[in-house]
Amino acid sequence: MNYRTAWAFALMLVLVVAGACGGGGDETPVAPVAPAADPIDPATVGSVMGTITFEGSADGLVEEIRMNADPVCLKEATSTQTEYYVVGDDGGLGNVFIYVKEGLEGRSFPIPSDVVTLDQRGCRYTPHVFGIHVDQTLVIVNNDPTLHNIHAMPATNQEFNTGQPIQGMKYERTFSTPEIMVPFKCDVHGWMNAYAGVLNHPYFAVTSENGAFDISNLPPGDYVVEAWHETMGVQTESVTVGEGATAELNFTFAIG
Question: In the chain, what is the straight-line distance between the N-terminal and C-terminal CA atoms, in Å?
Answer without folding.
Answer: 102
